[in-house]
Amino acid sequence: MVQKSKSLARWLRHRPDAIKISLDKEGWTDIGELLLKANALGVGLTRQELEQIVEENDKQRFSISEDGLRIRAAQGHSVAVNLNLVAKLPPPVLYHGTVSKFIPSIKKQGLLPGTRNDVHLSATSETALVVGARRGAAVLLKIETFPMVKAGIKFRCADNGVWLVDCVPVEFIKFP
Q1: Pick from 175, 158, 155, 174: which is nearest to 166 by CA?
Q2: φ, ψ at 87 (rounded to 5°)
Q3: How far apart are CA 56 and CA 135, in angstroms?
């Protein structure tokens, strides 16, 4: 199931072309078509397994539409989609987990989305540390959000609780 979840993340966030599906402008794709194409590629995936992945994914990476016919990734896209998330007032502090090799670049440029559409921020330091630890020893960055809001920077919150922002200028980052 872990491998199937990783395949879904790749297809729905980065490479819909790898499975020959299309995402609409909001990132949705038809579940029936997705299952058909996955099985044609040899990735045996049933509707029941898909629903289990959506429900049990620890990061709640996926959303099924209210009518149950479509699926999309909650955030993390590198392909152009508009999740239609409204701007929200964030908590006073958010966090970003990274590794030490990126700190010099972040100190020069701030946090940039890289290959993704948005910078991802976490509501808890624990979550940010887990995210940062995927690439090595995690370094925790603290983001003071209210000065960013005052500067006109908009925050959005994905369905799974990940906070999204276009960038985080260096002056709003507290380094360890």
Answers
A1: 155
A2: -65, 140
A3: 24
